[in-house]
Recover the amino acids of this structure.
């Protein structure tokens, strides 16, 4: 298996299709996907033009 493998698109609350207060058209540009990285599954939001941007959540001391 490659190091990063898309598993499936995600829907529901917490995804680009399940949050009511996102701007109009947001879900037309971005997709929520579950990605397998090694043995870990990560929820990602991908899309839009321009250079890639990685946002990592958590506490700075972690």
């Amino acid at each position: 298996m490659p190091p990063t493998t898309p598993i499936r698109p995600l829907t529901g609350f917490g995804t680009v299709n399940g949050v009511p207060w996102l701007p109009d058209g947001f879900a037309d540009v971005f997709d929520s996907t579950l990605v397998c990285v090694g043995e870990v599954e990560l929820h990602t939001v991908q899309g839009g033009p321009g250079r890639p941007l990685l946002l990592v959540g958590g506490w700075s001391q972690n």
Summary: Strands lie at 4-9, 30-37, 40-47. The mean pLDDT is 77. The two ends are 28 Å apart (CA to CA).
